[in-house]
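Section 4.2 – Deliverable D4.2 (structural model, holo form)

The reporting period included a commitment to supply a predicted holo structure for the target in complex with adenosine-5'-diphosphate. Inputs used:
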Amino acid sequence: PNAPNTVLEVKNLHKHFGGVKAVNGIDFVVKEGDVAVLIGPNGSGKTTAINLLSGIYTPTDGEIVFAGGNIAGLKPSDITKKGIARTFQNIRLFPELTVLENVMIGSHTKGSVGIIGTLVGRRKGLMEDRTAANKALEALRFVGIERHQEQAKNLPYGQQRLVEIARALVSEPKLLLLDEPAAGMNAEETVKLVKLIKKLNQMGLTILLIEHDMSLVAEVATRAYVMDFGRKISEGDIQKVLNDPIVIQAYLGE
Ligand code: ADP
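Output (C-alpha cells):
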C-alpha cells in the first residue's frame, strides 16, 4: 500500500509570551488516519501548540502546513473552513441552548451565516437550517447522545463533552483536535470516549489529541510526540516514548 499522506506538518513552530518560550521550535507531522497524541508534563506547551494550530494564537515563528498551504496566523474561523475542528479543555457549550442547537452551530462555520444566523434561521425555518438540523442529529446519534431537546447544561459532564465532539464533527473536518477530552470524565465515560475515538478513526478521521490520561493515550495513539519546556523531547510509537528515559525523567521533574 501507498504511504499515508501528510495531513499536517508543523515546522519550527514558536510562541513566545514575553520571555516565556511556551513553544520553542517544534516540528511534527500528522499523517492521514493517525490518532496522533501530544503529551508532556504540565506547562510543557501542549495547550499553546493546539491554540496555534486552531488560530487562537498567532505563532512568533514557524509554519503550520495544512491543506496545501501555511495556515499559521489565520483566524480560527478560516482554519475551521479549511478543515480543522477542535474541542476545548473547558467545555464551551451554550448552557441555555438545547443540545441540538449547540451542535447546529458547528455546521454553519463553513458558510457565512454564523452563530446568530443559526438561531435566527431556526426560527425562520430555512431549508438550509433543516439540513443543518439533520446533520446535527446524525452527529449526535454517532456520539451516542439522545436528549437533543434538553438544555446543554442539564446533561452530565461527560455527555457535554460528547456534544462538543458532535459540534466539531458537523463541520466535516479533515483533522479533529481534541484538547484533553477525558478531563473531568469518570471511568465509564472514559471507556465510551475511547470507543468513540477509535470508531471515528476507523471511519477515516485523522485526530490529534492532547491528553493527561496515559491509559487512554496508550489505547488510541498511533503516533506520539512528547514536549517539555516548549520543545519536542521524544517521538514515535507510544510504548517506545513512554519507556524513553528522557520522557520518564521529564515527568519525574513535574
Ligand atoms: P501545557 O498545556 O503543556 O500545560 P501551556 O501551553 O499551557 O502548557 O503552557 C506552557 C508555558 O507557557 C507555561 O510556562 C505557561 O505558564 C506559559 N503560558 C501559556 N500561556 C501563556 C500566556 N497567555 N501568557 C504567558 N505565558 C503563558
